[in-house]
Specification:
Structural class: alpha/beta
Distance between the termini: 38 Å
Strand order of the largest sheet: 3-4-5-6-7-8-9-10
Bound molecules: adenosine-2'-5'-diphosphate
Order of helices and strands: EEEHEHEHEHEHEHEHHEHHH
Number of strands: 10
Helix content: 25-40%
Length: 296
């Protein structure tokens, strides 16, 4: 079973499927990361705002897998935007993770009520990149117009744009803008967790229960999650499914030995509703943006 690598616009590579730890409680994070590394994952995606960077670092250290064999990605939270504050956010993140460099550091989202600070934060990422402290930089939750504004004011084209992306919200416009600039699209909630997380609103339809996906899954003898992950892999995206359950962590990495047909892919593509389940990146959320990220 070979895990395909994706190549960023600066030549750095990362495995197509990594472990996500959004909403993974700190006390469950070490075990989830260790399990994932044992199963074969070599990419972990965390964020300052997830409050589990320290435990991600512990899980990697305890796994016995050499640090340099793991692609470590984390995100700067909005309250740390601004040139100097973002340089310091790198120190906080690496201090908690227990590493001296990061593989990928991205801005967690555009802060539309303070976009100038978003730009300054990105300029700090450019400095960290030039200094060799991060191997790649990027953004998250950027729509095409945020990307255009960023590209007009900065030098380094982001290597990655991480966005909500699952069969019910497959983001054709963002993918086209990313592709035009050589930016890798990375899917958060790749198996649609955002469509079924408890407590996030009752009117949502769970993509995990979708009949078309169930039918394709049955045809291939796979689970709906595996079909969705295979759809991402075949379309050349990075995907970071979250799980704390050992068998689901393993299942989500077991997607490299079957192939969806062109018809399967087209049927999944046709499920796009154009409606996001997560927060709208154009709506500022100052009460959340201002949450302070603790020192290391
Ligand atoms: P759990 O951590 O208990 O496995 P996403 O990454 O798309 O946001 O999805 C994450 C959600 O999907 C979590 O609620 C996670 O719960 C659940 N999940 C992860 N893997 C699977 C799977 N293979 N089948 C069903 N649910 C899954």
């Amino acid at each position: 079973m070979s895990v395909p690598d994706l190549t960023l616009n600066n030549g750095v590579t990362l495995p197509a499927v990594g472990l996500g730890v959004f909403q993974t409680p700190p006390e469950e994070t070490v075990a989830a990361v260790e399990t994932a590394l044992r199963v074969g994952y070599r990419h972990i995606d965390t964020a300052a705002a997830y409050n589990n960077e320290r435990e991600v670092g512990q899980g990697i250290a305890q796994s016995g897998v050499p640090r340099d064999d793991v692609f470590i990605e984390t995100k700067v939270w909005v309250s740390d935007y601004g040139y100097d504050k973002t340089l310091h956010a790198f120190e906080k993140a690496t201090g908690k993770l227990g590493v001296d460099h990061l593989d990928l550091l991205i801005l967690h989202q555009p802060a539309t009520d303070r976009f100038d600070q978003t730009i300054q934060a990105y300029k700090a990422l450019e400095t960290l990149y030039a200094d060799g402290k991060v191997r790649a930089i990027g953004v998250s939750n950027f729509t095409p117009h945020h990307l255009a504004e960023l590209l007009a004011q900065t030098e380094v084209v982001p290597m990655v744009n991480q966005v909500e992306l699952h069969p019910y919200f497959s983001q054709p416009e963002v993918r086209a803008a990313d592709a035009e600039h050589g930016i890798l699209t990375q899917a958060w909630s790749p198996i649609g967790g955002i469509t079924f997380y408890p407590g996030w609103g009752d009117e949502r339809r769970s993509v995990m229960q979708d009949p078309t996906i169930a039918e394709i899954a049955a045809e291939h003898g796979r689970s709906p999650a595996q079909v969705m992950l295979r759809w991402h892999v075949q379309q050349g995206r990075s995907a970071i499914p979250k799980s704390t359950n050992p068998s689901r962590i393993a299942q989500n990495f077991d997607v490299f030995d079957f192939e969806l047909s062109a018809d399967d892919v087209a049927r999944i593509d046709a499920l796009d509703t154009g409606v996001r389940s997560g927060p709208d990146p154009d709506t500022p959320r100052p009460e959340i943006f201002d949450r302070v990220v603790p020192e290391a």
